[in-house]
Amino acid sequence: MSSDRKPSLHFTADCWINDPCAPGYDPVTALYHVFYQCNPHGTVWGSMSWGHLTSKDLVSWTPSTKPALIPDQPYDRAGVFTGCMAPPANFEQSSLKVIYSSVRHLPFHWSTPPYPRDAAGLAIAESRDNGKTWMKCSENPILAGEPKGLQVTGFRDPFLAEWHALDRFRDQKSMYGLVSGGIEPNGPTAFLYSVPYENLSEWHYLCPLVNIPARFQPSPKWSGNFGVNWECANFLTLECQTNNRVCLIFGAEGDVEREHIRSFKSDAHIPPRTVRSLLWMFGNLRVENNLVSVDYTHSGYLDCGSLYAASSFFDPVSKRYIMHAWIPEEDITASYAKRKGWNGALAIPRELFLLSIPNVTRALHSPLSEIASVEKVPDQGALLTIYTLGIRPIEEVSRLRKRCGRVCQRKHISLPSPTTGASHALCSTLFRAWDLEAEITIDPSCCFEVGFHIRHNSDMSICTTITFSLQKETISINKERSTYDPNVRNCLEEGPFTLFYGLDNLGVEPKDKLENLRIRIVSDADILEVFANDRFALATMVYSPEDCRPASISAFAKGTRESAVIEDVTIWDGLSAAGR
């Protein structure tokens, strides 16, 4: 296939790639690092190794010419799986260190118990030349396997960071490590370790961090199913003014497939998607009888699409939590991926933060008490302040707009229109990567849907549609007409999203006013990422035909006349990250 099919903003390699690993920042060189699992030998899973990327700005990445780590030792002969970087506080002037899952035995999976004892442990690799080359440490493996006396469903994906609140609870200072998995028959968890600053090879087991039953699901709509086994669990302490929340992000394996995926019918001869979800959870940190736990309070989807294997770090330069994640390609045949020449990509980095929304009175339709992804704190009178996980592309991505190929901007478009009908043509895109940002005022009493038709041809026989449904309180991506290639499954993507009413004091009498919809769409070759109101994200692959260029973008609304107004929409066409 043409190299024009390769993304301009997102990283991919000429092989299979999956989990991002060990993101971090080196203050000595002022470089950001991220690794990624890969199979250097083909476009299917296998020979798990680590590729390596460096960047000065988190958007323009320079790949290493060969894998940084390969499975070449007895303790990791079956694969170098996911891992983390030692935090900046631990950096020596001439040393970078990463900790990874060293797999000595395959297969293992939560669905085929019992999990083989010590199938995966932990190992350390070190670089003394600023990340150019990496050497595995002689003490490896630093952990042979899971804690003794436990029958686990999994044990992998180490994460290491400082956790000052836990230091205060325990009255001692250390770093803390997580290893993801689960315990039979209890449910999913992350195994908590203390790790001394002076010796990264000493991981002292404390306890399971959470006690949640298998396939726990607080809300059938607003919170994903927690599954039976966790992968890539991270802990974060999010702060907003004087408020802070303990947050866990994780991949849930063995959950119940979401209805819109389970019910989708396709003629493509492609294996079903892996049943998993990328989730977040707020909880209360507690220490009792020397046992640490994070007790569940709220949760939601970290991404409502196919995004998985999130890995975060605290950036000491910008003081932000930054997340990398993997966009898999499970909706194409193996032959299609081989012909394409690559399989999988890394999402654009995202910022995670504590989002607060003051003066809230209610949501569109769902009672606030049923929305598991928001915490409701009483404010003045009947008003509430809402807290939830904030998620958005890092601001560095927006800076790429300054050197785009062309800009299209429109203002004050009322839809449906008496002249153009339900839809309004915006522009045609000439390049493979573009970024759209729009703010839309909606009359909820008479507007049912609003959104965008993208990547469409003149007769709309090729089209991908992004829709916010006010009635269903969802954002969806309909790919039914994205392509007619029999090697592609055009699976619907959908996730829960609502708008909130707040108190408007500008008139003679205070009244409820619905917040505007703020939507951002990043399209990059086969990749599509959608964000809304700093609290919704959905990443997926959309395989539009190569000959559908220029491709058009149109806005639409369904409802009574002029029930939605696009206050402002801007499209930056021709974005590129240097080094791609």
Which residue ranges are poorly predicted, with pLDDT under 50 across at least 5 consecutive positions?
Answer: none
Mean pLDDT: 94
Number of domains: 2
What does the largest sheet look like?
A: 8 strands, antiparallel
Protein name: Glycosyl hydrolase family 32 N-terminal domain-containing protein
Domain Glycosyl hydrolase family 32 N-terminal: 12-354
Keywords: Glycosidase, Hydrolase, Signal
Family: Belongs to the glycosyl hydrolase 32 family.
Can you describe this structure?
This protein has 580 residues and is mostly beta strands. Helix content is 4%, strand content 50%. It folds into two domains: 86-322, Glycosyl hydrolase domain, family 43 (Tachylectin-2, Chain A, 5 Propeller), CATH 2.115.10; 402-573, Jelly Rolls (Sandwich). The strands form seven sheets. Strands 17, 18, 19, 20, 21, 22, 30 and 31 form an eight-stranded antiparallel β-sheet that branches. It has a six-stranded antiparallel β-sheet with strand order 23-36-25-32-33-34, with no helix packed on it. Strands 24-35-26-27-28-29 form a six-stranded antiparallel β-sheet, with no helix packed on it. A hairpin with a 2-residue loop joins strand 15 (276-288) and strand 16 (291-303). It is globular and about 75 Å long.
Comma- or semicolon-separated keywords:
4% helix, mainly beta, 580 residues, 2 domains, Jelly Rolls, Tachylectin-2, Chain A, 4 helices
Question: What's the short version?
Answer:
One of its GO terms (cellular component) is cytoplasm. With 580 residues, the chain is mainly beta.
